Input
Amino acid sequence: MNPALITTQDAVDPVFWFILGISGVILLAITATMIWFVIRYRRSRCPEPTSQCDGNLTLEVIWIVVPTIIVLAMFYYGWAGYLALRQVPPDAMEVTATARMWSWDFEYANGRHSDRLYVPVGRPVKVRLLSKDVLHAFFVPAFRIKRDTVPGMENYVWFVADEQGSYDIFCAEYCGVGHADMHTTVEAVPPAEFEEWLAGMSGSQNTEKGRSLLARYGCLGCHSLDGSNLVGPSFKGLGGRQVTVIADGEERVITSDRDYIRRSLIAPGVAVVKGYPPVMPSYAGQITGPEVEEMIDYLLRIGQPVKNGESAESEAGLDGAGLARRQGCLGCHSLDGSRKVGPSFKGLFGRERRLEGGRTLIADEAYLTRAIRKPTADVVEGYPPVMPPYPQLRPEEVEAILEWLEGLTE
Output
């Protein structure tokens, strides 16, 4: 990090301590003077006023000049700190933060999105602030920054994360019933790790590579990605699934974890899924170790719940979880079953829902599509009718979101 760089903490903290120190000194001085006057001029000692003093020029000059100097000093340091907060270093990395009821979406220069703000340690970061609906405020206490996000107007803040860690981001402007849930974090990581994350080496690019490897080795000719049965079982929802297999002539129930998938690639005849023919060839010696791990990473992600804002891939190649995050859905709907502004997404697909007025229906594709296009048509009982419609979503995007929701099982 540049040692000459004045960070936002450097700009704000001295001003805060200066004003706090001056206020403390004045408080003590006034309190001490008041106590001295109470003791020195108490009624029992001076029952009748005897002072004939009409004025004291020295005191009058002191209590005019000294407070003026103090106030001007406060103004100077405050103004200098404000300028430091508004003057962005020329080498700052730029990120766009879009606020909406009730979530944050961060977009990077290469088009990558995240619901948490990832930044490299030691590098200045400029955050462009936009709002999709109402007035919000971007507030990161650790970096002493708070700035309004106003609909129709672009604003900005900047900061430097000196140390690796996770720092809270709050909305500091009341923006509706989900205001308290509009919380995320700044994730400060080492520069090399950040570059890997930004390039997608831990995310979507690995997913694409895993799928391309499956296609290259012919796996997708026998295994579907959408849940339908082909020659072999579908890959959708494979990770963590309970599978009944035939091994050594006996039925056993095992968990489809990383070790099981690896064995199925290298020695598929050892444990064959019940109901399917043992026709899969062995890939021992044909697939390298790193390729095997990339394929397993991909298979463990398909049709699974999102974690930390990363998602499984939809059949259409669209990122359903990413779409839901960028449209602000995760600001009102949880992924872990907890209650927020709207019903949780966990286990939503296929569940019976009770609506306002006493009607019930099943949360199938038709209902969920209608909930996205016309959310006030069927409002779930116990929840406010505050969800906006999303007519801008293309049919294939809606389909990707529905496929992702279907994977969020209990």
